[in-house]
């Protein structure tokens, strides 16, 4: 499914009052679950979920917002439904017609009024009001938010002794596990839906600039108004934060894993933002050959100047296999793993170079903002407004000879487009701009397809790679 069919939703949330006390989480901000049901006594979910729902509802809240401008920094997206629906039980006064109003969901993590919701629900808003299941309402202030994971933390004013949720462990989820969503879809407060975990590890889905969320997919019914609400397991522990839906109404919803939220919430509480580690590299997409499993590890495409990666001696073409002893699946996995670490953290990387393994140690820097990263990437690739080619000349900057399945590079001109694409002597170019090339003439014709973009698919050794160069 293409990510352009997804729509930010205003989701579901929260957790629990009647559960037995669990230990406070590592941050002392929440109660940590231990896989035990939050309801006491005999409870048969095969007969009814009512006892569990009754225990969970008190800590699930409706988040009402108005004024300001919502910070919907979302990429790769077409909105098929508005991110917020006007709440039907809260009509606008005549002088409020030009103020965007909306509703989302959330859940209480501390007795003194810390509430978790979505960044896209609360960030940039002038007025935030939170309503509990018992009808009480509280004014709320934004403590901090993180657009890269779409998590926000609110503080309720004059709140104490509130019911709270228990946070579970999302990495234990398996496809097929039952889950429960509670929230305010379409402004319908305390709505409960049930489904299963459809998939885990969906990645960022390209929803956010420089996104870090690694979504849980579920078929529990979600709708606009559910955003920021909780996804519970059958023990009544929060395992996810509902965030996005399939805008075409195909019944698919997506939630941020609670394990990621646990790394974000303490930083939002302490600093109002999240600081992430950074190596200073970009990766290269890879395609495995037919019948072969993808190679593990993250292939380095480029090392930026003046970064920890350059200072440590990392090179383009290196394959990072492990970080602090943890095996790395691909570049997205590396991106998330490094982002989990704080700036100035000393890390040990296991790197494969030229078929040999070696250990590299470095100290991480702080990850730049998405805008700064974009400027850095543009500068390193020499990107500027205009065309890739001068006049009518279409040159990649290589000498080639035909081989089965493509053309083999015999020489690469310094400073050429091929050089910017990091093409090497010996690489076999199979496609340019999605057009197969079997000769120098076919290569030239393929370059004529686009003045501003070159997309190359090529084979290096036994691995297929893709690389793209584009002008603004």
Structure description:
By secondary structure, this protein is mainly beta. It has three domains: 1-273, Thrombin, subunit H; 278-380, PDZ domain (Pdz3 Domain, Roll), CATH 2.30.42; 398-470, PDZ domain (Pdz3 Domain), CATH 2.30.42.10. It is 13% helix and 33% strand. The protein contains eight helices and 30 strands. The strands form six sheets. Strands 18, 25, 26, 27, 28, 29 and 30 form a seven-stranded antiparallel β-sheet that branches. A six-stranded antiparallel β-barrel has the order 10-11-12-15-14-13. A hairpin with a 2-residue loop joins strand 22 and strand 23 (356-363). The chain is elongated, with a radius of gyration of 25 Å. It starts with 5 loop residues before the first strand and ends with a strand.
What is CATH's topology name of the largest domain? Thrombin, subunit H
Indicate the low-confidence ranges by residue numbers. Answer: 1-24, 73-98, 382-386
The CATH architecture classification of the largest domain is Beta Barrel
The oligomeric state is: single chain
Relative strand content? 25-35%
* Ends apart, CA distance between termini: 27 Å
Question: Based on helices, strands and strand pairing, what is the structural class?
Answer: mainly beta
Helical proportion, percent range: 10-25%
The number of domains is 3
The CATH class of the largest domain is: Mainly Beta
Q: How many strands?
A: 30
**Rg from alpha-carbon coordinates:** 25 Å
Q: How does the overall form come out from the CA principal axes? A: elongated
């Amino acid at each position: 499914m293409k990510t352009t069919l997804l729509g930010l939703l205003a989701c579901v949330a929260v957790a629990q009052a009647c559960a037995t006390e669990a230990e406070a989480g590592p941050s002392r901000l929440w109660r940590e679950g231990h896989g035990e049901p939050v309801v006491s006594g005999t409870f048969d979910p095969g007969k009814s979920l009512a006892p569990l729902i009754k225990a969970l509802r008190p800590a699930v809240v409706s988040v009402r917002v108005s004024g300001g401008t919502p910070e919907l920094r979302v990429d790769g997206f077409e909105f098929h439904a508005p991110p917020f629906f006007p709440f039907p039980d809260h009509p606008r006064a005549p002088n409020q017609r030009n103020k965007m109003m909306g509703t989302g969901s959330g859940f209480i993590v501390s007795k003194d009024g810390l509430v978790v919701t979505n960044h896209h629900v609360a960030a940039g808003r002038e007025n935030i009001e939170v309503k509990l299941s018992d009808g009480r309402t509280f004014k709320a202030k934004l403590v901090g938010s993180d657009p890269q994971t779409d998590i926000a933390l609110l503080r309720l004013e004059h709140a104490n002794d509130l019911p709270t949720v228990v946070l579970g462990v999302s990495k234990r989820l398996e496809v097929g596990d039952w889950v429960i969503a509670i929230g305010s879809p379409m402004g319908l407060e305390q709505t409960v839906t049930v489904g299963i975990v459809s998939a885990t590890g969906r990645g960022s889905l390209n929803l956010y600039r420089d996104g870090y969320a690694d979504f849980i997919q579920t078929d529990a019914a979600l709708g606009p108004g559910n955003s920021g609400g909780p996804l519970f397991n059958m023990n009544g522990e929060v395992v996810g934060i509902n965030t996005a839906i399939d805008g075409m109404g195909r019944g698919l919803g997506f939630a941020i894993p609670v394990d990621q939220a646990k790394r974000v919430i303490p930083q939002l509480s302490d600093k109002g933002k999240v600081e992430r580690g950074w190596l200073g590299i970009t990766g290269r997409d890879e395609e495995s050959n037919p019948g072969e499993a993808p190679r593990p590890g993250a292939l380095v495409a480029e090392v930026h100047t003046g970064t920890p990666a350059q200072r440590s001696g990392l090179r383009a073409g290196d394959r990072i296999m492990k970080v602090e002893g943890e095996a790395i699946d691909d570049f997205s996995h590396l991106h998330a793993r490094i982002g989990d670490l704080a700036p100035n953290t000393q890390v040990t990387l296991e790197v494969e170079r030229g078929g040999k393994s070696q250990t590299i140690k470095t100290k991480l820097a702080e990850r730049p903002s998405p805008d700064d990263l974009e400027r850095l990437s543009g500068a390193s690739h020499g990107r500027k407004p205009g065309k890739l080619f001068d006049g009518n000349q279409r040159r990649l900057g290589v000498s080639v000879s035909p081989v089965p399945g493509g053309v083999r590079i015999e020489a690469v001109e310094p400073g050429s487009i091929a050089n910017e694409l990091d093409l090497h002597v010996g690489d076999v170019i199979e496609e340019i701009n999605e057009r197969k090339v079997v000769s120098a003439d076919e290569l030239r014709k393929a370059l004529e397809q686009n003045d501003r973009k070159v997309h190359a698919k090529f084979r290096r050794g036994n691995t297929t790679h893709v690389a793209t160069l584009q002008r603004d």
